[in-house]
Amino acid sequence: MSNQPLTEEEKAQLRAHVQALEVEHGDLDDVIARLSQDAAQDQVQLRRLKKRKLLLKDQIARLRARLIPDIIA
Fold first, then answer.
1. Is the overall model pTM greater than 0.85, yes or no?
2. In sequence order, what are the residues at sequence separation of 6 or more whose Cβ sits closer than 8 angstroms to the Cβ of residue 46?
3. Residues 6 or more apart whose Cβ sits within 8 Å of residue 60
């Protein structure tokens, strides 16, 4: 990552990417909720889905932080 400010085009691309990740995160949340209700569900698969959801959450947070300009104090 560079310290250069983002162009408007880069900001728009980041916002679109964040939005796509948020959709995937929400979809995973729904799938995890449905699978958690089934006691016979494969716990390894469920853990993988939860791990993917956490990774998405972290990635979304990092991208949002890039959209916020640095404030020089």
1. no
2. 32, 35, 36
3. 18, 21, 22, 25
In this prediction, residue 2 carries a pLDDT of: 57
Per-residue CA distances from 11 to 18, 20, 24, 31, 52 (Å): 10, 14, 20, 30, 25
Sign of CA dihedral 29, 23, 61, 45: positive
The half-sphere exposure of 69 on its side-chain side, counting CA atoms within 13 A, is 8
Write down the pLDDT at residue 42.
86
**Structure tokens given for 13:** 């691309």
Q: Measured between alpha carbons, how far is 46 from 40 in angstroms, rounded to an integer?
A: 11
